[in-house]
Structures are given as C-alpha cells and as structure tokens.
Amino acid sequence: MTIGIVLADDHQIFREGIRQLFDQQGDMEVLAEAADGRMAVKLARELSPDVVVMDISMPGLNGIDATRRIIAENPQVKVVALSMHADRRFALEMLKAGATGYLLKDCAFEELVRAINAVLKGQTYLCPEMTELVLRDSLHLSEEPKSLEPCPLTLREREVLQLVAEGKNTKEIAELLNVSVKTIESHRSNIMKKLNLHSLAELTKYAIREGLTCL
After folding, report:
1. Which residues partner with 145 through β-bridges?
2. Cα(187)–Cα(165) distance, rounded to whole angstroms?
3. What is the CATH number for 35?
4. 128 and 174: one domain?
5. Structural domain tally of the chain?
6. In sequence order, which residues have a C-beta less than 8 Å from that of residue 144 and are 6 or more positions away?
7. Is residue 214 in a domain?
8. What is the pLDDT averaged over residues 93-115?
9. Which one is predicted more confidently, 100 or 1?
10. Does one domain contain both 67 and 162?
C-alpha cells in the first residue's frame, strides 16, 4: 500500500528536495505541498493523507495550530513535525496539538522514513536529540517551568495574534478570516488583556517566543 503524504513547509526548495527523496521510496507518494499552515489544513481536509510532514514556523498559520485543526477534523491523519527548533517547548506543543512525531531538520532522510512508519503503526517518534528534553519535562525536572505554562489564548486568538505580529492590519486580517473589522478589534483587545501586553512590539515578541510566527 502506498503511503500518501502532504508536505507543509514555507521553503519551496526544501519541499522539492524532500519530495524527490520520497519519490525514490516506491511505497510513499507526495500528494501535495503546502507553503503555509492554512493550506496544509485545506489539503489535509481534501486529500485525507496518511501523513502530514509539518514545519512549525510558517506564515499565516503556524504548524502547531495547523496540526490542532487537522487532528480535530480527521484524527486518522498522522502529523510528523520536521522543525529547526531544538526546543522542548515546541516539541511538547506539537505533541499536545496531536502530532505523533517530532524530528529536527538536520536529521537524515532515513530517520524521517522511520518516523513515518512508526507513527502509522500507532507509535510516537521523537528524534534522539529531543527525547531527553521531553522526558525531563514529563518528570518535572524542567529548569524553566514558567516557560511551559499553557498559552491562555483561544485558537482564533492565536491566529489573529500571528497575523498581527506578521504585520497585517485590522482590515487585512478581517478579510483573510472572513469576519468583521469589529470582530478583529475585539480579538486584539482580548489578546492584550489576557497577556497583559500593551504594544505591537510586545505582542510580536510574545508571538515569536511561542512559535506563532516565523519572523
């Protein structure tokens, strides 16, 4: 049986390279490519792939929130994160969102293949570099417990925050999300209140720290 894959990464040359490697596998087929999280969600909905190989830092909608939407719509789809972030926070957030694999982009392609085969068998796969960090956190041995506090924002608020941090104005965000300007203004006000932040610079810094934007 051929394994259907959707590649989600905002770097075209990276997607093309990975696609060529998958084409050589024989039992794996790249069904489509997505340059951002919003397109990844759309493709997963339309194509029902076996696996989505997901970057985290992407414009418009990041990989964490895209994963959460994909799994909510179709729990049968497996998501494997392929990220440059060697940080337990990003790994934990992806796992909480529903991903069952997390690898770093400097891994060998053979390891990505192993991860895909593992998650399709119902296993969770973490690359060796991340395993110790995640286990340490699960055993409550984190050196920075405050950094692991859950984000208080809703999924829509996270989406709005990412777009704000990426420089979109209120009207642009409203048009993109197909809602009113007043709704976006309300979301922005709620975001600032929840985070106790008072400027665009502070919002942007928070978004970067939380992995919501690729800036």
Report:
1. none
2. 14
3. 3.40.50.2300
4. no
5. 2
6. none
7. no
8. 93
9. 100
10. no
Residue 144, in any domain of the structure: no
Residue 159 lies in domain: 151-209
Look at residues 138, 166, 191 and tell me which one is the last residue of a structural domain: 138
Using only C-alpha atoms, the chain has a radius of gyration, in whole angstroms, of 17
Q: Looking at 108, 138, 168, which one is the last position of a domain? A: 138
Is there a single domain that holds both residue 155 and residue 134? no
Could you tell me if residue 98 is inside a domain? yes
- Write the DSSP assignment of 88-120 as a string of letters: HHHHHHHHHHT--EEEETTS-HHHHHHHHHHHH
d(CA 125, CA 103): 8
Encode burial over 152-190: b for 16+ CB neighbours within 10 A, e otherwise. Answer: ebeeebbbbbbbbbbebebeebbeebeeeeebbeebbee
Q: What is the rounded average pLDDT of the residues 72-100?
A: 91
Q: Tokens representing 119? A: 């998650």
Is the pLDDT reported for residue 180 higher than 50?
Answer: yes
Whole-number mean pLDDT of the chain? 88
Strand partners, 79: 52
Does 215 reside within a domain? no
pLDDT surpassing 80 at residue 71? yes
Please give the average per-residue pLDDT across 94-103, as a whole number: 93
Q: What is the pLDDT of residue 203?
A: 86
**Neighbouring residues of 99: CB distance < 8 A, sequence distance ≥ 6:** 54, 67, 79, 80, 81
**pLDDT confidence of 76, banded at 50, 70, 90?**
very high
